[in-house]
């Protein structure tokens, strides 16, 4: 090992997957302490930020439990499990390497876990959760996860319209329950909202600039929950996507910036908000969809960087390489899958982040 300075070794180890990294801890004292060293953890997470993945929960009709598939552009496909939670759960949100899961068996029980390190935290149980996601239709509570590696903390947001009394019918009072990992407590604030919260996509919540962002079903604007001040506000979308082309739009994150992907029958346009304060959007790419013409009506963009875009169809995970203009199929599910892959696909990246 004397041929390489410690700085070079650390740079190499920061590019290992989590499991091999933890196995190397037995080599020497320096390597043993790296996963808890602040400089190395920051470096590792910065490297991982440039390598997004897609996490897909595959529901197989022949198996009692769903399996989790991680599709990595550089390392291929791997499978893992959330069996360390010892509970049957649904994945509700993903952010910077952490997952927020809700218990299927027990209402009001939520977990935040790092599936790569198999660490998890059981959140304090919510006793009274008379919230519904939509108004006036009763649906699942909206869930958001905000993980900030630089501050070493995370927040979980449950939001929905409050149900009035024993009728179980929602009124127009919109409530947010926020779990703060620093205080280990839930807090609540209430606002009055009209139908603007109707049609929020549960999977595509984006955490940037200390705020959670959801795109409305109409695609006319973005709803923002500022976690520093606990207020809701609106952010504009590009004018070209707002005024009635009939194209589909999706909200993603791209290298720490808010991004919008617009899909038509023949083109995919990628917008990035370059100036968050002034809400200035720039179209950074325009991609022909001729190579995947038969799949266009069923593709959903899930994750991206400046170099590639991950898209999910009914049974496939595709990646588009923006520099080489090349499409590649990364994963294809078998015929016995019961749900489309886009229904349970999440953006994901590995990280060293303690849940406790």
TrEMBL record:
Alphabetized SMART domains for the sequence: FBOX (SM00256)
UniProt xrefs under Pfam families: F-box, FBA_1
Coiled-coil region: none
PROSITE patterns given in the database record: FBOX
Record-annotated F-box domain positions: 1-47
Naturally occurring in which organism (per UniProt): Gossypium tomentosum
UniProt protein name: F-box domain-containing protein
